[in-house]
Amino acid sequence: MTSVGTALTRTSSTDSSAMSNIIVARAVEDDSASEGISASTPPTSLTDSGSLGSAKATTDTLDTIHEERLHRPKRARSSVSTYNLAKLAEQQLDTAPGSRNVSGLTGKTLVDDDEDEYAAMGSKVDKDIDSSGDGPSKSAELPQRRSPRKLQRRPTVKDRVKKAAGKVTSVLGKRGRDVVQAGKRKLGMHEAEADPQTKKVLKELDMGSKGILDEMDLSDDAGYLPPPRPAKKARLDSNVLQDTKQTVPTAPPLKITSGKAVKKWQQEGLYVGQDTHADPTQSGSRKKLQKKRPTSSASDLTPDNTGEEPTPRKTFMPLPMFKYLDSTRNFTIPFDIYAPSARKGDEKPKDWHKLNRNRLVGEAKELWEKAEKLPNSACVCRTPSEDEQGCGDDCLNRVMQYECNDDNCKLPASLCSNRAFAELAARTKKGRAFDVGVEVVKTGNRGFGVRSCRTFVPGQIIMEYTGEIISEGECQRRMAEDYKDKQCYYLMELERGLIIDGTKGSVARFINHSCSPNCEVRMVKVSGTPRMAVFAGEDGVMTGDELTYDYNFDNFGATKQLCYCGASNCRGTLSKRLNAAEQKKLAREEGERRRKAAEEARKIAEAEAKKNLVKKERGSGWRGWVAVDDPETKEKLKREKKEREEAQKSSERARRLAARMSGTPMSASKRKASAPLPIAEKKDAKRRKTVHALETVAAPMHEEIEVAQPARKVSHIRTVSTSSKFTEEFHLHEPEVSVSTTTTAEEVREETRLLDENVAMTNGTEEKEAGRGGEAKSGLSRTASKGKEALKQVGLAVKGSLLGLDRNRPALGSGKFRQSTLSFGKLG
Ligand SMILES: C[S@@+](CC[C@H](N)C(=O)[O-])C[C@H]1O[C@@H](n2cnc3c(N)ncnc32)[C@H](O)[C@@H]1O
């Protein structure tokens, strides 16, 4: 490629556009020259008609511009192949250097009248492309040879701007440096005149290797650089404002844009906030929405094209998607995003004939026609203030259950709030899911039901209850014959003895009953015709809620259907709502029933508490083992024991014991007659009975004086028995006490008293138990028999001994006594 020397300027950074933006400044001698050539940038593609017609366009009048505004110029598409313009320019320069124009191609623009030149250019291009081998020949794509008139392109916005300005501007930014500088000076962007040295540097900087210009970022630091160019739009605006005023004061105002497509940001969807300015109900036409919405741009605060206040862009987090929702974390989808919808495969109601309009059936027709015409109603509501609604609660039409319309209401529809059916008709006309707003779904235990797919404000109409309008007679017949085996009835009283049978009817027939409903059904006369509709209750309806109303069911049959509404105030059955007096009576009865139940519960609780108290007082009788190595504990135990002894001496029991020992036994019957035994004693008495039976065999003269004690840890120390004396020594560890039994009656008594409390001994099982104890067996058996013998001699009998050694530790002196009884008795 031949270098075009210093005259070439590169203004774009991309390869393709770099080539297409080449201009030959050599041909431009001064500012006036630039006027002549105006926007004669070589075509960047075959379809870039803007370039082709540019020369002609500059001569058009403003009138033409105005006309042309009706037709938007087509923009060049980047996908279309472009000429190798550098090469073309090179050839043109070589072949006709003297006749080059600013495009550097032919010395004339492509739309020059000289047809031969045009043809030559076409063949040149063809040849050039073919020979380059870059791809298929583009000759087929070349503009067809046509009259110069036809080749004129429509002026673009830029053209119009230039025209309006009257002189050439730097609209396209594709001028030689001189032209650009001249243009800048014209725009008041004065550049300091560079000295020759600076010019040289600039020249060098402008030149890249191989004659291709590099795009340079020349910072202001250099001192000789022009001030930064204002944004293109600003330049355009200032140009137009300046130049239009001066040169074409009569020109009609032109809408000037930068020519760039404005990025339109989505206003709804996953990544945008929820309360959009757009009404989602109107979202059918994308275009409409776009118009409604303020145009936003990348910045968060961007003034829109309409010149309104900047609209802050919503920066909410996106909705959680995919994996996040699969996790076990509970997540509630915001109501205005949540869009429940029946799924594929969900059960659908069968045998349902949809009927979206009321249909008069049988004699109902006659009744309807014969019926006295309803009197007309008219309201006199005043125009509401800004924060009010027209035709509110005191609207005469509303009170009379009439819907307002243009005949009976003076307010315009937009200000009247009593036009529910009109609103419904407008909303459902489109028939889209959101507008309809409900769907039929299967419930757990109440058959099908109706779910809301959107929100409804309190009192808003949701849907009409339609079906066959029948007479009361027909209703009875259907109940008795047609529906006798049915579980569900869809009959609703309309008025004047007419009934709507929704068996064939609208979706409203599927609405279930609730004792705490979120909707209500009301009759409204629309243009004199009574119609039923379901309205949102006083709390409104949220997306996903099941719609319910109170059936206030008149149950003629004997059996009442159970209600599964689950409300806290559920009446239990699908029955009639009670009036105030009935409710009062019911409440009274309910109160009484509750009071009785509470009394009963209190009694039971008291009895239970008593039982527990007795249990607690009685105790378990087992205290468990206590370690007595600690001297302090030992001391404490001794002290406690002494206190107990003191207390017992003066106790009733001690007196009785003393009485017995002194030979005045109390019979069991007498004892019974006296003060009742404490529970522990009762238990002991039972045990004594057993003991007594044994004793009867062994020592019939014996009188029991000892009772059983729970096992205690006892160390047997020594048994000494002589003919006159029976001594056994043992040590009781809990409570800490050393016991020495003696043969004397006094000593035995004393021991007995001590043992009464502390020592556990076996009765009757001693030999058996001891038999397993090896050494203990002989020793203890012997001791026992000797002891008994000795006691006999001193007038005492002993039944039982220090036996019942622990099987695992049979050695004498270290055994643990299990439950055992030591009985002493006086020989008769
Ligand atoms: C007008 S239909 C409602 C739609 C009905 N669930 C269906 O599947 O066609 C009335 C019937 O629904 C059932 N139903 C409605 N609400 C109910 C409730 N709260 N508890 C039990 N059954 C109910 C009863 O069988 C009743 O006769």
Automatic annotation (TrEMBL):
Report the residue ranges that make up the AWS domain in this protein: 374-425
Which keywords label this protein? Chromosome, Methyltransferase, Nucleus, S-adenosyl-L-methionine, Transferase
Question: Polar residues bias: where?
Answer: 35-62, 92-106, 239-249, 295-305, 817-828
Residue ranges for the region (Disordered) are: 1-20, 28-170, 218-255, 273-316, 633-675, 761-790, 805-828
Q: Which PROSITE patterns match?
A: AWS, POST_SET, SET
Q: Name one GO cellular component term.
A: nucleus
One GO MF term: histone methyltransferase activity
Which Pfam family would be a valid example here? AWS
User: Which superkingdom is the protein from?
Assistant: Eukaryota
Compositional bias per record (Basic residues), positions renumbered to this chain = 146-165, 285-294
The answer on whether this UniProt entry bears the keyword Transport reads: no
Q: Which residues form the SET domain?
A: 436-552
Q: Per the UniProt entry, what is one GO biological process?
A: methylation
Compositional bias segments (type: Basic and acidic residues): 633-655, 765-775
Q: Which InterPro entries match?
A: AWS_dom (IPR006560), Post-SET_dom (IPR003616), SET2_Histone-Lys_MeTrsfase (IPR050777), SET_dom (IPR001214), SET_dom_sf (IPR046341)
Domain Post-SET intervals: 559-575
Do you know which SMART domains this protein is assigned to? AWS, PostSET, SET
Q: Where in the cell does this protein reside?
A: Chromosome; Nucleus
Give the principal location in a single coarse category.
Answer: nucleus
Q: What is this protein called?
A: SET domain-containing protein
Q: What species does this protein belong to?
A: Neohortaea acidophila
- Top-level taxonomy: Eukaryota, Fungi, Dikarya, Ascomycota, Pezizomycotina
